[in-house]
Structure formats: structure tokens, C-alpha cells
């Protein structure tokens, strides 16, 4: 058996024609777990070959628009792709509060349109999200378990966003950790202990052209410097570091090399990938 990690989106709130919004797909056997649903997630999932109906569950890291703006699209496209006959709701795990509230209400503005489709096509039912909310735990806590696969969550450091979390997926093959959006923190270091793959966000303030975002220092403070991520990954004993949510988004060979070099200079000795969309690691 194999565990496959596909970064479905490496983007940020900044529109980029080559980068979908944040997302990671972790697959083991016939279990397919999607983490976050940023802009164009359904298009990247289509490229993975995994049908939307075959998603087992979705997990949200936090409510920042770039991580959730593709959720309504995912729910409705999943329903339509099943020609409306597949009435299974999609389990969505989200931190209690803003994120879970959003999931609860995400399809409310679409009910008139969906009713029109029901009338026109005869499709039964409606797309729905089965909300599983949880209090963001200060220590890793199991929130999902199926057939030898578990998902743990822990609160990370993305203040002022309340209750942002990272996830640790343990399969019979090994461990995948997803940082979500966070400053470099011990919570993620502990979560990533012994991970085969760490998917971590990065923000290289030193590479950001002046004027790219207003108040860049403030923004950088709740994201992660790639050198410090390299140091964290080394301490945690991570095998492969997949850098995502890349700011500034690399475009040239030198840009990619700069991210890799930064993580290397932080002391990381494992494999480093500055990810494009659909970057994949199997183990
Ligand atoms: Zn983000
Ligand atoms: Zn965020």
C-alpha cells in the first residue's frame, strides 16, 4: 500500500494563473482526505484523477478566504458530477467558531439556484456538508479515524485568526503533517516529529519586492520564514519538506533555488521541494 500526498494548491490570496488556492490531498488505499479548499481546488482535484464523489472527508485549517473560497464550488460540483443522485453529504472537519460557522452556512445563498436545478432536472436532494466541528486543541488530539488511518489536529500560531490548526495524518505507511497557516512554532515542531512528509507554508520577507503587499512585516509575522522552517524540520526529524503557500511565489529557477537554499541553510538535511501545484510525494 502507498500513501500519496498531492499539493492541490500552492497559492495565497494573491491571484496567480499558475497557482490554485491552498490545498493538500492525502490518499491511502480508497481513503482520500482533502485539506483546505482554496480557489480552483476542484480543477486541481480533477487533475489528480480522484473523483469528487470519492473524497472521504475535507478538513479546514482556518477561515481565511484563500483556504475556503473553493468550498461551495467543491460541494456543488461534487453533487452535480454525481448527476445529483449521490445524496451523500461530505464530512467537513473544521475548528469551532468562524470556520465551522462558515461551513454551516456556505450553501445558504445557493438554495434558490439549487431548487431551480431540482425542478429542472429532477435531481433528488441537495449538496450538503456534514459539519464536524472541534475545539482547537493545545495538544494533538485525534479527530478522525478510519481503517488504520488517523488524523490529529493541534492549534497553531496564526493570530489574530482564532483557532487555526495543523493536521497530522498517520497511515500504515507513515506520517504526513500539514502546517496550515502559521508562524514557526513548537506546536508544529511537535506535530511533525518523525514525519515522512511535512507540508509547510513559507513566507520569505527578504525576497519580497517592495510594495508587493502593504505592511509586509505584519503579514510575515503570522507566516513562516523558510530558514526557520528548515530548522524546525531538521529538529523534528522530517524526511521530506514540501514548501507551499509560497510568498513571494517563485517564478524563475533562481526563485525556487532561493527557497530551497533558505531551508537548507536552516539546517535541514532531508529532501526539499518548493512546490508547484500538483507536486506529489509517495511513500
Ligand atoms: Zn493562507
Ligand atoms: Zn491564513
| Rg result | 18 Å
Regions with pLDDT < 50 over 5+ consecutive residues? none
CATH class category label = Alpha Beta
Tally of strands: 14
Structural class, from helix and strand content? alpha/beta
Calculate the mean pLDDT score and round it: 95
Biggest sheet character = 7 strands, mixed
- According to CATH, what is the topology? Metallo-beta-lactamase, Chain A
Secondary-structure element string: EEEHEHHEHHEEEEEHEHHEHEE
How many domains is the backbone divided into?
1
Number of helices: 9
| Ligands, ions, cofactors | zinc ion
Tell me, what's the shape? globular
CATH homology superfamily name: Ribonuclease Z/Hydroxyacylglutathione hydrolase-like
**Any idea what the CATH architecture is?**
4-Layer Sandwich
* Neighbour order of strands in the largest sheet: 6-5-4-3-2-1-14
How far from one another are the termini? 9 Å
Estimate the strand proportion: 25-35%
Determine the fraction of residues in helical runs and give it as a percent range.
25-40%
For the structure shown, list the relevant keywords.
283 residues; alpha/beta; Metallo-beta-lactamase, Chain A; seven-stranded mixed sheet; 9 helices; 28% helix; 29% strand; globular; binds zinc ion
Structural account:
The protein is α/β, with parallel strands linked by helices. It has a single domain (3-282), classed as Metallo-beta-lactamase, Chain A. The chain is built from nine helices and 14 strands. A seven-stranded mixed β-sheet has the order 6-5-4-3-2-1-14, with helices on one face. A seven-stranded mixed β-sheet has the order 7-8-9-10-11-12-13. Strand 3, helix 1 (41-48) and strand 4 (57-59) form a beta-alpha-beta unit. Helix 8 (226-236) packs across helix 9. The chain is globular. The termini are close together. 46% of the residues are buried. Bound molecules: zinc ion (ZN) (2 copies). The site of one zinc ion (ZN) has 5 residues, from loops. One zinc ion is lined by residues 62, 64, 158, 161, 181.
Amino acid at each position: 500500500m502507498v500513501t500519496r500526498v498531492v499539493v492541490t494548491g500552492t497559492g495565497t490570496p494573491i491571484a496567480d494563473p499558475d497557482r490554485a488556492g491552498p490545498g493538500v490531498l492525502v490518499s491511502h488505499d480508497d481513503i482520500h482526505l482533502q485539506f483546505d479548499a482554496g480557489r480552483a481546488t476542484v480543477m486541481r482535484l480533477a487533475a489528480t484523477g480522484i473523483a469528487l464523489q470519492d473524497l472521504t472527508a475535507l478538513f479546514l485549517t482556518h477561515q481565511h478566504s484563500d483556504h475556503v473560497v473553493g468550498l461551495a464550488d467543491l460541494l456543488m460540483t461534487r453533487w452535480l458530477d454525481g448527476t445529483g443522485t449521490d445524496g451523500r453529504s461530505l464530512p467537513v472537519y473544521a475548528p469551532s467558531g468562524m470556520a465551522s460557522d462558515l461551513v454551516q452556512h456556505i450553501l445558504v445563498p445557493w438554495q434558490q439556484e439549487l431548487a431551480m436545478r431540482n425542478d429542472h432536472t429532477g435531481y433528488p436532494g441537495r449538496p450538503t456538508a456534514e459539519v464536524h466541528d472541534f475545539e482547537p486543541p493545545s495538544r494533538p488530539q485525534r479527530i478522525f479515524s478510519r481503517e488504520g488511518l488517523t488524523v490529529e489536529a493541534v492549534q497553531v500560531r496564526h493570530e489574530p485568526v482564532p483557532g487555526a490548526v495543523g493536521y497530522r495524518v498517520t497511515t500504515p505507511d507513515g506520517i504526513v503533517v500539514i502546517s496550515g497557516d502559521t508562524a514557526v512554532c513548537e506546536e508544529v515542531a511537535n506535530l511533525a516529529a518523525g514525519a515522512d512528509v511535512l507540508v509547510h507554508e513559507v513566507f520569505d520577507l527578504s525576497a519580497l519586492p517592495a510594495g508587493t503587499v502593504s505592511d509586509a512585516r505584519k503579514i510575515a509575522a503570522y507566516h513562516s520564514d523558510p530558514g526557520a522552517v528548515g530548522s524546525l524540520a531538521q529538529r523534528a526529524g522530517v524526511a521530506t519538506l514540501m514548501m507551499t503557500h509560497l510568498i513571494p511565489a517563485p517564478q524563475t529557477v533562481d526563485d525556487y533555488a532561493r527557497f530551497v537554499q533558505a531551508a537548507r541553510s536552516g539546517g535541514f538535511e532531508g529532501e526539499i521541494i518548493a512546490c508547484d501545484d500538483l507536486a506529489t510525494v509517495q511513500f
